[in-house]
Please model this.
Amino acid sequence: MSVTITIGQIIKKLRKERNLTQEELAEQLNVTSKAVSKWESETGMPDISQVVPLARVFGVSTDVLFGIFGQNDNEEVQKIINEIEKECDFDDIFDEKGFPDDEKEIAAGKKECELLREALKQYPNNMNLLNHSINRFSAHVICKTAGNDVDGLYEECVRIANVIINHGKDMNIVMNAHRCLVEIYSRFGEYDKAYGHANLFPAGFDMNRETLLAKIKWESKDIDGELKQRCENIESILYTINHEIVMLGKIYGRKGQYEDSIFVLKSIFDIITAVYGDEEFTPPLHLLSATYIHIANQYFMLGDNDNGYLWLEKLIDHHINNEKYFNKRTKLKTPLLRECVFMYPLLKEYNAKGTIYNAFDNFQLNEIKETERFKALLDRVKNLD
Model:
């Protein structure tokens, strides 16, 4: 049974989302607070002349006021998103050595935020645009790539997240809004709010969509469908395990437990060997630059410089090896992942030299950067084709 939401209920909901009192809303509309109270209690209706001003005050389209939060403009919105991505090409922010140019990166970030805000004025209630915008705005806040507009973007993220949470029908988009709020609130030190949103997520792998889909396929005896789903689930778990191992290794490093950090981080390569065996093409679970660098750092902190340099050499070899798999699509032989299709990142071009320079730029120990052996490694990278 469908539930009809009245315009009065919508006005009340939008007013509270924007932390407005009835008096403050009435003042902006040049009506009495008694009139607003009547609308919200459904003993009266706003005059037709008030519909557009109401929409402007709330920053939504008139469709929202009438309970129509449609997706009919998705095709046009996607064109706008594609144009914004084209105009704000973050592949063009790197210098000739492959290092990101801070000024270019911030300029691109500011431009992207400006264009997204203009798009939101035109399509303020389109869920796909709202979802794309909160992803980009939160990324700029966390990575500090939008200049001095951090506070403005923080407020924008919170506003968009609340709109998505209160009006969204697609749970993937709604939960993504909660995820963005966890990251934003955590970054700004509002940990209680972050915990509040994090605790809305289910606990345990058996509570996610993919596992439940596999359960349905098992019950319906869809053997081929279940086979494909189980392989995809294993792939997802592997990515999650890789991320957690990297983060755990970094924590041990911060605590000064360098040997534990090395042991944990190296286990990623044990997993790769166990899962992929002698496959020619071995998806790296995640691009491994950070892992090589972290292991090298821990060895240098222990004073084991030989192993430190060895892992920097492994980093270079890893990225050189990646070039032959660039944009390659393949299926694996292993029964664990046979139904998954893997493809390396779809970038304009794979720049091994620039990628390695970026990894070296994140290297922690400046005294190591001054050694002849480290400079020799840089010369090797410089001479790459």
Strands lie at 329-331, 341-343. The longest helix spans residues 223-254.
